[in-house]
Every structure is written in structure tokens, then in C-alpha cells.
Amino acid sequence: MYFRIVLISLTMFSWSYIIRPALAEDLPKSCVKTTKTNSIPKLKKLYLQCAKEVPEGGYRSLAYINLGTIFFREGNFSVAANYYDLADVGVGSVSSDPLFHAYRASTYNKIGRGDEAVRDADKVVDWLKSNDTNNIQLLKELVENIIPIYYQNNRTESFQLVLKFYLGLKDNDWIDYLNKSSVLSAVDRYDDAIVFAKKAIDMQPNHPATLNSYCYVLAKSGEPAKALPYCEKALKIEPDRAEIWHSQAFVLAEMGKCKESEKSRLQAKKLQPRDKEYMNALPCH
């Protein structure tokens, strides 16, 4: 049950990095302006305008990739997938940035496109095998995105390999604990997940991400009544997150409150209509 916040600063492709400086003066102003702001609303408008103003091909694809990345980081996987699909890279590789493949893999997996997700995840693993980096935060974000993909798509050997690598990386703060809890939950290791969820919420008791994580893992561990207040508190802080509504739907289903559960699930589906996790009613008795 993801509430992704790792690497809080948005990782984007840099126009000045991707495009040779000699060509920069030929780009529309909208494309150049993307390098001069960190405002997400402005970046959305500028990248969209840039994509419209440049010819088909590399520059337009990069603009769509960046739009996809923005919406992925916001948790809007339906829109992210639309923009990733518009980028003219198919199943090819953008070797300069493995995060692109990790993000696209996670996006496709969230909307039920498992085979495409695995192909992108494999490209991340290829990059890891051929690059020796000391950037632990980068390594964590890469593997956090692809571990659930291998597990959910029955790629057992790849799953075990990447999970072992991930568990060997050192945790430094509450975000690491939170994300480790999320990853372990996504692969049904709830006894381990609750340990890290507890560490995260002890450090950040009023953050919607830690509240959501602890709520979900508590319910999965057989304590839905104890879990519910944490979901309710998270929704008061962040009412527009589909993940929290779905966590609450699961908790209510575990408590036998079927009508309330379905209402919460439908709210999650309304916020994320293409997320496969929210498509069907949860088992409730």
C-alpha cells in the first residue's frame, strides 16, 4: 500500500543535460523556461506547451516523459501512463536515467500493464549491474519501485535478487523506514513491515504517509479496530489521496462494515480510476 514520498525533491530530466548546448538556442522559449522554475503547476504548463511547439521526436518525447514523471510523483498513475505512452520511446531505453524506467515500470504495474512493467524493471536491473554508484538514495528509489513488480508478476528469481539487495541497504531516517514498510507490505511480509511502520510513525506521528502505512499494516496484522483511527486521522490531513481511502476501505472490510468499506473504495477509485487495485469491491463479511 504505497504512499510514496521518497526523494522529496522532484527528479526531472534536464534539458541542458539531454540537449547539446549548441542546440539550446533553437528550442522554443517554453522548453527553455522549464530549466528556470521549480513550480510544479508552471512545469506542467511549460512541458505541455513545449511538447506542442517542438517537432515530433526527441524533444517532444522528453517533455512528455517529464510530464509523466510529475504525475507519477503526485500519485496520479492514470495521467502519468498517458504521458509516458505519448513519449516516442516505446519499450526502448533512456539509458541516461534509470529512474525513468523505474517510474514508468511502477506506473504501468499500477494500472495492470504487468508485462510492460517487467520490461522496464529489467532495464533498471541492467543499469544496476553495469553501474557502480555510491548514491544510496538513488539505489533505494530504483529498487523500491521494481520489487513489487517482480513479486506481483511472478518473476521469483528477479524478486529475490532485488529484495536481498534492498534489505542490505542501510536505513537513515523515517522516510527510509516508511518506504521499507511499504515495500514489505506490497510483497506480503507484514510481520516485517509493521516493525518499520512503527519506527516511522514514532518519528513522524502526524504525517499522513506514516499514519496511512501504520493503519494498513496494523489491519493486515489482524488489528483493524486499532488501525481505523490512524486512517481517519490521515484523511483529515490529506483527503485527496486514493491510497488512504483504500487503506480505510480495507480496514472497514476487515471489521465487517461492508457498506462503509465500499464507499471508501469508490472514493479511491474516483481519485484514481485506472488503478487496478481499486477496481473491485474488497472481500467483506
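the 2nd protein, sequnce then structure:
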Amino acid sequence: MSDFTALRRRADTLRRIETDAVREAWFAGYNRGLRYAHFQTLGQTFGTLAEHELFLSAADSIDLPRAALGRGYRAGLTLTWVNPS
């Protein structure tokens, strides 16, 4: 199993069992960021530039789950495990 697959599985499992909406959103964003970064390393695209910018800007939202989604997305772009913030 690749590191990418292991990270995605871990994040998806934690998202599904999470009871806090903010942390659940963080894991969803993290998973999305992982996919974006992974496909970029392969020279492929995942989503559009507008979607990418929207996810990046979500971290600055005053809405807590939306901000968590954006922070998770940014963390996923590192292609490493990062604990939710």
C-alpha cells in the first residue's frame, strides 16, 4: 500500500467516526488536499484551479467547519500526516 493510500484511508476512517463537525470537516479537507497534491506529483490534474483556490481560501472563513475544511485541505497538500488543527 502506498503512503498516499494509507494516508487517505486513515483520514477517511477518522472522518467517518468523528462526532465533532469541525474535526469531520478538517478530515474531509485533508483528504481532498491529499488527492490534489498526489495527482499534481503525477503531472495530472484533480479539480480545477478555481476549486483549489476556493479550498485554500476556506481556511480564512469565519464559519468554523468551513475554516477547518480549508485548514485540512492545506495540511493535505503536504502529503504527510498532520494532526487536525
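Residues 39 and 45 are 6 Å apart (CA to CA). The mean pLDDT is 94.
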